[in-house]
Amino acid sequence: MSYVEDPAPGHGSLPPRAAFVSDAPALSLNGTWRFRLSPAVAAAPAGVERDDFDDSAWDELPVPSMWQLHGHGRPAYTNVQYPFPVDPPHVPSGNPTGDHRLRFDLPADWPAGPAVLRFDGIDSCGRIWLNGTELGVTKGSRLPSEFEVGPLLRPHGNVLVVRVHQWSAASYLEDQDMWWLSGIFRSVTLLARPDGGIGDYWVRADYDHTTGQGTVRVETGPDVVLDLPELGVTAHPAGVPLTLPVEPWSAESPRLYEGTLSTAAERVPVRIGFRTVSIEDGQLKVNGRPLLLRGVNRHEHDPHTGRAVSRETMLADVLLMKRHNVNAVRTSHYPPDPAFLELCDEYGLWVIDECDLETHGFGPLEWAGNPSSEPMWLEAYLDRIRRTVERDKNRPSVILWSLGNESHTGENLARMAEWVRHRDPTRPVHYEGDHECSYVDIHSRMYATHEDVERIGRREDDNSRRRDLPFIQCEYGHAMGNGPGGLLEYRELFERYPNCQGGFIWEWIDHGLADGGHFAYGGDFGETIHDGNFVIDGLVFPDRTPSPGLVEYAKIIEPVRIAADASGIRVSNHYDFVDTAHLKFGWVLEEEGIAVVQGVLDVPAVQSGQSTVVPLPSLPSTAGESWLTVSASLASATPWAPAGHVVGWGQLPVSAAPEAAPLPPRGPVFRTGGKLLLGAGEFDPLTGTLTTLGGHPVEGPRLDVWRATTDNDRGEFAGRPEADQWREAGLHRLQHRVITVDADGEELVVRTRVAPPAQPFGLFADYTWTAFADRLRLRLEVTPDGSWPCTLPRLGLTMAVPGTLGSAEWFGGGPGEAYPDSRQSVRIGRFSSSVDALQTPYVFPQENGNRTAVRWARLTAPDGTGLHIAGEPQFDFTARRWTAADLEAARHTDDLVPGELVHLTLDVAHHGLGSASCGPGVLPQYRLLPQKTAFTLWFRPLPADAD
Ligand code: IPT
Question: Does 177 contact ligand 1 (Cβ within 6 A)?
Fold first, then answer.
């Protein structure tokens, strides 16, 4: 059997060991290599391994890279399904094969003797030669392989050849939900290995929270000594346990002690974090304290380079996470570049380090033939977990080992768990697919509903083993498109039940690939089978701009919560370890969103899990609606954010809007020149619709219930998709029947019945217009008629105004978008934005940009003319240069072309977002059911600016 289709692990490599650098010479072989892609193994050129092979006609390719992103072949995306016939261990004979060649010289001072060639990641299978000698074969795309090469090296003209196959038997074990991309996508390094050096080491650094003592013991070679200058440790025999008082490591306070391990021949810098992971009383604890995991699932992704990610990109992820209150990462679904874990140690993130394993494509086949229970794959499974654990064992941030993802269950997984327990008893084992929890230490679920979490929290599980374990959601809150909704209710459950220890949002980043003017997803590269935009489900856009979902999550999981009422300001510390001494508290009183007075708040340090109440500052009285905002921010800069970075905030309404002034007399309705005139408005006498307002031509406002469906509206995980029900009901094509236009006296009353074609149900919509000086009041009464089969996407008005009204200002919720079940992150204030910037550029266009709890909004042209819209008391709005139908029809952001008009939605209610694209639907309290509703808006034309 060819090595390509051999289910066994690769061969020829050295036993796995920790990832580390030392003072021994190292030579990076990253850079420009020669490259040639062949469409099949059989079509690949013969003799590439020979020194004298002529590659001068080949292309150049950067290493590390993924060749499909450099013009060779094309990316392809599938989630669960294998893109090739399921015929293990066979793969297509049309197996793209990339030959990579590098000629390199050794530095002049390169020492003679042993040397190791290290590959940090080759996707999916590589055969390697150095100077004509075959070194072996790698499999396990996201795992390192090292080869002994010392005797083969020469000072000049070394020829390194790597033949990489896109598909191999190992592809059956690497069916993660991501792009199929190939190549040498992580670093290649040559490492001199001095005789008498440090081959491998394992720093075990425990912390005893009852004594405040740390114990360090290093498993390594015999003559290694440990130096930890900060702790006064000098030349301590590394293997001899040493106990001394230390500051512990935690994600909140990532204390690392710098030191060295050395022998006469080699010196290895180490950074040691003291911490102890345990499971006690059904809780996952570190240093004796239960954790609440406020996590994300992170894939490695860059919109230009795919899974070849730079250190800057890794750091960008870590900083963004820390700044958004994220405290944990699951490395879904493979060990990341080792540098990422060093950043987690340094900046402080709890990590579930997941093995490179997923066989999800057997799921649709009812798991028949699943590798997890086939003996021929056992060695590959064990090889993968060994390489994971050995590589990352020194990372204090890693607190759990995960066997992999979505590989069902089976003996091979149980054997992996057994191996881990034996090798590293200090970290519990995670694997979601072991539903009975027979070989894992944590009860883990994906996308469990709130109800299920509640049941688990109440320990009503009938499986007693599972019932007594800590519970986490390794995936929840599917962040596809606009959403997720319902995170607040998850948080409440996690906080109510001590065994529910949080979870990891699916997922961190949209895997969109930069392609012309937009980000591409599945199907955009002509794939035969693909899963469309299911790969666009992150909290940050492909370019790492935070999406509203991340802003919302940051607010939900804020480590300090501030709530105020008339009796004072309550500050609650939701950190798991630290007190609030590193924070400063400030307040500001705003009247209609304009700061009136501000100050600092003296808050004594609050311990983890505790809260305190401090008195309200004395506040001047204000004439308009005013709010007190209190925020907690970093008192001084941290490595991940500047001083002043806000970690939590709360708001208190201080004074309500004043009673409205007595209204001026009502203006009359009159008819002239085929028009109905009322105050600043002109109306069509036949339909009763507004046509001009203060001289601006307008369309509408008319009753509307449609929104461009979101991924969650279309989601299939919570029963029949809401979007299907709406469409079947015909809510996207309502017809408006005018019953009466009553224009006598001081009111224009337009009675209509609004209903979809072919359906017996509908909504009566009565519009009552009244003019008061320059203002028009619209009272809308909506009464359902007949029996409605479904919820409504939204309820309100649609209206179009001239495109010159391109600036918005409002007093209400902001600055970002909000929906009923995703609105914790908006505060009441005054905000402004261009109409263009009100749009959230979801990679797959859909409903977005709704501003909520708006008291008033102004839309203006550059000269100041425009429209002032006020709610009685509030409304929601969107403003876009396209219609909801355009938004619904668009497939990529650049399909949306600005038109002549600005289209407004002015709403009284919205259906929630939920998470049905992969999870529960909209919770009952956020479902919008047709019911009798009244809603009042005021319209006032704005004159040109005074100057
Ligand atoms: C779950 C997968 O683990 C994850 O990789 C991703 O595909 C996610 O779904 C959806 O985006 S598995 C699913 C069957 C719940």
Answer: yes
Please calculate the CA angle 56-62-68 and round it to the nearest 5 degrees: 100
CA distance 288 to 606: 19
Instruction: Please give the model's pTM, rounded to 2 decimal places.
Output: 0.98
SS3 label, residue 531:
coil
Neighbouring-strand partners of residue 822 = 819
Q: Which two tokens stand for residue 856?
A: 């008033």
CATH number of 3-192: 2.60.120.260
Mutate to test the pocket of ligand 1, among 80, 431, 446, 447 (most ligand atoms within 8 A of CB): 446
Q: Is the CB of 99 under 6 A from ligand 1?
A: no
Only one residue has tokens 């289709």, namely: 5
Ranges assigned E (strand) in 386-448: 398-402, 429-430, 443-446
Residue in the structure block whose two tokens are 């405290």: 327
Contact of 72 with 35, CB cutoff 8 Å: yes
Q: Is 568 left (phi over 0), alpha (psi -120 to 50) or beta?
A: left
CA of 717, closest atom in ligand 1: 15
Domain 564-655 in the same topology as domain 201-276: yes
Read off the pLDDT of each residue in 719-733 and give the average, rounded to a whole number. 98
CA of 447 to the centre of ligand 1 (A): 9
User: Domain 666-942 belongs to what architecture?
Assistant: Distorted Sandwich (2.70)
Identify the H or E element spanning 317.
helix 311-323
Is any ligand 1 atom within 6 A of the Cβ of residue 405?
yes
Ligand 1 centre from 659 Cα, in Å? 52
Contacting residues for 618 by C-beta, under 8 A, at least 6 apart: none
Q: What is the pLDDT of residues 384-421, one digit of tens each?
A: 999 999 999 999 999 999 999 999 999 999 999 999 99
Are 194 and 70 in contact by the 8 Å Cβ rule? The answer is no
Does residue 510's CB lie within 6 angstroms of at least one atom of ligand 1?
A: no
Name the CA radius of gyration of the chain, rounded: 31
DSSP state of 638: B
Chain segment 730-787, per-residue pLDDT in tens: 999 999 999 999 998 899 999 999 999 999 999 999 999 999 999 999 999 999 999 9
Q: What are 42's two structure tokens? A: 């059989």
What's the chain's average pLDDT? 97
Which residue shows structure tokens 């190292």? 26
Q: What is the largest CA-CA distance in the chain?
A: 103
CATH class of 564-655: mainly beta
In this structure, which amino acid lies at residue 53?
F
The predicted structure's pLDDT at residue 947: 53
| Nearest residue to 338 (alpha-carbon basis) of 544, 119, 538 | 119
Q: Does 124 sit behind a cis peptide bond, omega within 30 degrees of 0 on the bond before it?
A: yes
Domain ranges of the chain: 3-192, 201-276, 279-555, 564-655, 666-942
736 forms bridges with which residues in the sheet?
754
279-555 belongs to which homologous superfamily? Answer: Glycosidases (3.20.20.80)
pLDDT tens digit sequence for 432-447: 999 999 999 999 999 9
H or E element in which residue 935 lies: strand 933-942
Count other C-beta atoms under 10 Å from residue 345's C-beta.
21
Report whether the peptide linkage leading into residue 89 is cis, meaning its omega lies within 30 degrees of zero. Answer: yes
Query: What are the two backbone dihedrals, phi and then psi, of residue 253, each rounded to the nearest 5 degrees?
Result: -145, 80
Centroid of ligand 1 to alpha carbon of 531 (angstroms) = 12
What percentage of the chain's residues is helix, strand, coil (to nearest 5)? 15, 40, 45
Instruction: Identify the pLDDT of residue 1.
Output: 66
**Ligand 1 centroid to residue 380 C-alpha, Å:** 23
Beta carbon of 475 within 6 Å of any ligand 1 atom: yes
Burial class (CB in 10 A: 0-12, 13-18, 19+), 422: exposed
CATH number belonging to the domain at 201-276, selected among 3.90.230.10, 2.40.110.10, 2.60.40.420, 2.60.40.10: 2.60.40.10
User: For ligand 1, what atom is nearest to the CA of residue 432?
Assistant: 3
